[in-house]
Amino acid sequence: MVSRLHDPHGILSHDHVNILFAGSVRIEDFEGWDIKKRLICFADGKQTIDHLQYYKKLQSMFLLFDSGAFSAWSKGEQIDIDEYVQTIIEHENIINAAENLDVIPGSKGNRQISHEQNITAASSGWLNYIYILSKLRHLDRDDLCSRIMPIHHQGESIDTLKMMIDYGCKYVGVSPSNDARTSQRMKYLDEVYNYLGSLPERILTHGYAVTSESLMKAYNWFTVDSISWIYSAGFGTIKTPFGNFCVSEDPRSLKIKDNLRIVVDSEGNIQFGNATYNKQKQDIIEYVKNRLMMDFSELSQDYFYRALANILYFKDFEVSCSGVGRDYHNMRIT
Question: Model pTM?
Fold first, then answer.
């Protein structure tokens, strides 16, 4: 059995997309944030181990373990595949799925990738996948083989994805290119989902770094991961149903090009930096007060509150992605 979803605590929903919160955060924040769906990166080193040790204390969550291949590639570093496998084994009780150690074509600063480079990277990544499965079997851990997720990247032939499915994979990663325009990503995803939709059995997909809300809604993802919740908070921005608003008083956040800048004056009055949103002013104020149960002074002064606001937004957004074609109940869950 290969690449089949392992969710014994039933954390993931079968009615809508599941957003896994990625990014480096302080461990002490987790209890206040109530995050039960996470992606963490092996390449983060000691911080990763600290997080894994912390997660052992939690009763239930869903954790996707990212090899960090792209992060290492961008730094000119290498991932030790045997160390990666050993970490998975040592933390099997909390790692629900672990991505393959994929291979990134080209070099940082030069993303003009040739067809031959894509073929070589896809082939090398598949060999890594087979090696990881073989290594686990050699260590008498056949039971963990089903948790290793292969990944198909934009630029690779659709035949590579077909090979994964033919091999028996039921839960696969799909990685649109970070460098491509939205229209180019959608062209790639159309091809992927047209193929998957033609199959007699539903294949579960994970969208890597699918932070675009339009892409989350447009395709039949089972899981996606996003770092934008924490990234936005760090730059003074909160996400709301009415747009992304910069609320930080930090002068550096003035450089951020958001839809709207919100400023609270010395008397507590809310000033909108863009008159376009004046008609929605009361709706925005009520959202912050009633849904977030916060005030603008908290959001403007504290990164913690902005991060929590973005978590609440994405939890609401998950539900909005429910709809036709999301019936995963017939999939075997272990």
Answer: 0.88
